[in-house]
Design brief:
mainly alpha, about 80% helix
């Protein structure tokens, strides 16, 4: 099966529009997954909030909550919007109605790939930190709950 080439007449990179389309759908799926993870993290924090007894733990808890709010309310939504806009650009390119050429679409795709990778790394890092924090809170609770 021959891959569709853009009708704009511009030289197109070795990657096809359909590869970009596949990437977009994969990224949107990842964003939905991460949004679900962020909701889970919020529930985990809510369930363990009473274990944060020290001022330092309360501050750390609030930092995690702020991170979750920021990622759920801004980062993931904005990136999802940008990917959907990119998808529209791809459709216009395929149909020959694109104002921007394939070079612009390729640069846009590379930018989005970097953004998704950055978000992925940030979420993975925060996840590790959060689980370590919850483990610390739980260990502290077990220490104080032991009979003397």
């Amino acid at each position: 099966m021959k891959k569709q080439q853009p009708t704009s007449g511009a030289a197109f990179p070795p990657v096809s529009v359909y590869d970009f389309h596949r990437d977009n759908h994969h990224w949107l799926s990842q964003l939905r997954h991460w949004a679900g993870e962020e909701a889970f993290f919020q529930k985990l924090l809510d369930q363990n909030a009473l274990l944060a007894l020290s001022e330092e733990d309360k501050i750390r808890l609030e930092q995690f909550q702020n991170h979750i709010l920021y990622y759920q309310g801004e980062v993931l939504q904005a990136l999802s919007h940008d990917i959907r806009q990119h998808e529209k650009s791809l459709k216009l390119l395929i149909s020959g109605k694109a104002i921007a050429g394939s070079e612009f679409v390729s640069r846009q795709h590379a930018y989005l790939a970097e953004e998704v990778q950055g978000v992925r790394l940030q979420i993975m890092q925060k996840k590790r930190e959060l689980f370590g924090f919850i483990k610390k809170l739980s260990a502290g609770f077990r220490q104080t709950a032991k009979p003397k």
